[in-house]
Amino acid sequence: MIVVGIETSTPHTSVAVGTDLEILGEVAISGKARQEVVTPALDRVLAWTGVERAQIGGVAVGIGPGLFTGLRVGVETGKTLAQVLGAPILGIPSLDALAYAVRTTSRTICAVLDARRGEVFHALYRPVPGGVMRVTEHAVASPDHLVADLEVSPDDVLCVGNGAILYRNALEQLGPRIEFASATVAHPSAAALVELAAPRFLREEHDDLFGVVPMYLRRSDAEIAWDERAGRAPA
């Protein structure tokens, strides 16, 4: 089965095509995720790999947590593609895809994405044969709060993601228990979505189309700014 992956939770947009056996191709673009970026990227990777749209058997889309506008664009593109093709769809948390990229480590994995406004999205994972298992809820918090959470754990930790890179100085307070993954895996990838989704599609596991929605762990920046302006306004 040929699967398309669409990942837009960060400013690093990627679209991939593959099967349960291999990744056929991937396009990655740095910058804000917009419809005029995602759809051409999909067309390009299909053209490069020689895959026709009618051959697509499943769509995997990253549902976040992540940046508000990018998530909306990616999820809606994936849902539209699945609906037009009559193909099954899976919504996969973007932090899960991020952790999957470093699944070969023996350490506990802390997936960390920049949430802006001095916060990070994060979750902890344990490596298991063939993948990772999430052991905490997806959360949004300040870097100091994340450090405090990690301090109570005795485990060695591998931090991965652009949030870990951005707040490396804060995380390094934990000393030698902390290692940092390469910047080459700082963003969740569409290829990881394909690898995670393909076996599930073969087992005929999928989500309800209208149940696939972005994972927003907080309000959008526009909503926060609106409330802040309203709070300063005279009564």
Report on the structure:
The protein has 235 residues and is of the alpha/beta class. It has 2 domains: 2-93 and 188-229, ATPase, nucleotide binding domain (Nucleotidyltransferase, domain 5, 2-Layer Sandwich), CATH 3.30.420; 102-185, 2-Layer Sandwich (Nucleotidyltransferase, domain 5). It has helices spanning 35-49, 68-85, 94-100, 143-151, 162-166, 168-171, 190-202, 221-232; strands spanning 2-7, 12-18, 23-30, 56-62, 89-92, 108-116, 119-128, 131-134, 139-141, 157-160, 178-180. A hairpin with a 2-residue loop joins strand 7 (119-128) and strand 8. Helix 3 (94-100) crosses helix 7. The radius of gyration is 18 Å and the shape is globular.
Write the layout of secondary structure elements.
Layout: E1 2-7, E2 12-18, E3 23-30, H1 35-49, E4 56-62, H2 68-85, E5 89-92, H3 94-100, E6 108-116, E7 119-128, E8 131-134, E9 139-141, H4 143-151, E10 157-160, H5 162-166, H6 168-171, E11 178-180, H7 190-202, H8 221-232
Parallel strand pairs: 1-4, 4-5, 6-10, 10-11
Antiparallel strand pairs: 1-2, 2-3, 6-7, 7-8, 7-9
